Amino acid sequence: GNEGTFTDPRDGNVYKTVEINGRIWLAENLRFEGVKHFAPNGNENNIAEYGCLYEWEDAMEACPEDWHLPSKEELTNVLNGEYLFEKLALLQIKPAGTENGNYFGTQCFLWSQTLEEETKSRGKALWALCTGIKTNSIGSYNEAFRFSVRCIKD
User: Fold this and answer.
1) Which of 56, 98, 127, 150 could form a disulfide with 72 if both were Cys (CB 3.0 to 4.6 A apart)?
2) If phi over 0 gives left and psi between -120 and 50 gives alpha, with beta otherwise, what is residue 117?
3) What are phi and psi of 126, to 5 degrees?
4) For 134-152, how does the pLDDT look when each residue is reduced to its tens digit (9 = 90+)?
5) pLDDT tens-digit profile of 41-92?
6) Are 29 and 94 in contact, with CB atoms under 8 Å apart?
7) Where are the alpha helices (DSSP H) in the chain?
8) CB 1 within 8 Å of CB 86
């Protein structure tokens, strides 16, 4: 795919971009600190390489103008078809883990904007892509989890 760069006008962060199945993705985890965010493994020094972790509501606000949090279909599109490992390599997935340093260095969880279900007791459950050692799957996770964000161009 075509590789390029995108400069976030909000903070000047420069991201690698990559084209997969005709769509432009950020090839780095989002580092936008203008909404509530958390540092991977609790260490601010990790943000440069691993990006920020976001709860879902903040993730929905985090992508720059003309970019959006991918839908479940857009995430699934990356997993489907041939060349899965090549596509994941193009995305240069960084295993930022989740809250409290869980899975740091082994897995990356990427939010989608797609709601799986909402219940009074559990709140919202959203689809997310889990990728890492021996696993690439789309699962349903509570909105309060802290995951990475990859924006896709509108």
Assistant:
1) 127
2) beta
3) -115, 150
4) 778 999 999 999 999 999 9
5) 999 999 999 999 999 999 999 999 999 999 999 998 888 877 777 888 888 8
6) yes
7) 47-50, 56-62, 72-79, 84-91
8) no
